[in-house]
Specification:
Keywords: Cytoplasm, GTP-binding, Hydrolase, Nucleotide-binding, Ribonucleoprotein, RNA-binding, Signal recognition particle
Largest sheet: 8 strands, mixed
Helix content: 40-55%
Catalytic activity: GTP + H2O = GDP + phosphate + H(+)
Bound molecules: guanosine-5'-diphosphate
Subcellular location: Cytoplasm
GO molecular function: 7S RNA binding; GTP binding; GTPase activity
Strand content: 5-15%
Number of strands: 8
Order of helices and strands: HHHHEHEHEHEHEHEHEEH
Radius of gyration: 21 Å
Distance between the termini: 11 Å
Subunit structure: Part of the signal recognition particle protein translocation system, which is composed of SRP and FtsY.
């Protein structure tokens, strides 16, 4: 994960760590390298620039030049700032409802169905939760089937109504079914399309308005770099979701989405997907991610 970015940041900071004496000039040079590494990792230029400016101000404020171990102080400042940029604290999912309704959104192929299964499994393993998965992709029978396969594999019930073309009606029926059958979490997997379009946005916002979910999650493929951030922005403008799920972080991802999504949409990343298997799900901890990025 983020190997390229980690290597570049390591070499940027290495120069500084190796220096006998630290000067304002080599701090500036180091931060320029850091900025370049972030931009290469698909972090938006403006965000990268603000990032290094903040680190620079903090470095000067903390008298980095006269610090006992200036190199280490710089690494710490970069790490703290990365943590802040990615949201600071880990953010939980609202499970206060009975049932708690969780609406999944995102483009086709982002990993929505897979993540719906992973989340159901994650909650089921907590013992106090009995999730119900709901198949609301009314356009693709294969997607409904895919959710049934996942549900069967996990021992989680899947609600679907093949032939019904109304995702609002299906969602409402599923919530009623959950109440009758003691499910305390309802996870609604919706239809995605290959690109943001009006029909998809209208459909997902109609479901959102009609069922008032406790939690609306936006799922995005981290491999898509800056597009991931742009798509997040387009969804957020219409849907006002509560959190982001960043999938496929096990792939050769550059890191830009993880680093910049929070500051662009002001919504936290809540979970990450790290593989195709149902247990490849992790809570997103900004500080742990910053540690991983900086090695
Ligand atoms: P949907 O169209 O949004 O429902 O996307 P799917 O859940 O069908 O996922 C699309 C593809 O991405 C499938 O082949 C999944 O196995 C794969 N996928 C989903 N999440 C991850 C992940 O975290 N890591 C990897 N490597 N593959 C994933």
């Amino acid at each position: 994960m983020f190997d390229n970015l980690s290597d570049k940041l390591d070499s940027a900071l290495h120069v500084l760590k190796g220096h006998g004496q630290i000067t304002e000039v080599n701090v500036a040079e180091t931060l320029k390298e850091v900025r370049r590494a972030l931009v290469d990792a698909d972090v938006n230029y403006k965000i990268a620039k603000e990032f290094t400016n903040t680190v620079k101000e903090k470095a000067l404020g903390q008298d980095v030049l006269t610090a006992l171990k200036p190199g280490q102080l710089m690494v710490k400042l970069v790490k703290d700032e990365l943590t802040d940029l990615m949201g600071g604290e880990a953010a939980g999912v609202n499970l206060s409802g009975d049932p708690s309704v969780i609406l999944m959104s995102g483009l086709q192929g982002s990993g929505k169905t897979t993540f719906s299964g992973k989340l159901a499994n994650y909650l089921k393993n907590k013992k106090t939760k009995k999730p119900l998965l709901v198949a609301c992709d009314v356009y693709r029978p294969a997607a409904i089937n895919q959710l049934h396969v996942v549900g069967e594999q996990l021992g989680v019930e899947v609600f679907s109504d093949e032939g019904n073309q109304d995702p609002v009606a299906i969602s409402k029926a599923a919530i009623a079914h959950a109440k009758e059958n003691g499910h305390n979490v309802v996870i609604i997997d919706t239809a995605g399309r290959l690109a943001v379009d009006e029909a998809m946005m209208t459909e997902i916002s109609n479901i959102h308005t009609a069922i008032e979910p406790h939690e609306t999650l936006f799922v995005v493929d981290s491999m898509t770099g800056q597009d991931a951030v742009n798509t997040a922005k387009a969804f957020n403008d219409r849907l006002d979701f509560d959190g982001v799920i960043l999938t496929k972080l096990d792939g050769d991802t550059r890191g830009g989405a993880a680093i910049s999504i929070k500051s662009v949409v002001n919504k936290p990343i809540k979970f990450i997907g790290t593989g195709e298997k149902m247990d490849a799900i992790d809570v997103f901890y900004p500080s742990r991610m910053a540690d991983r990025i900086l090695g």
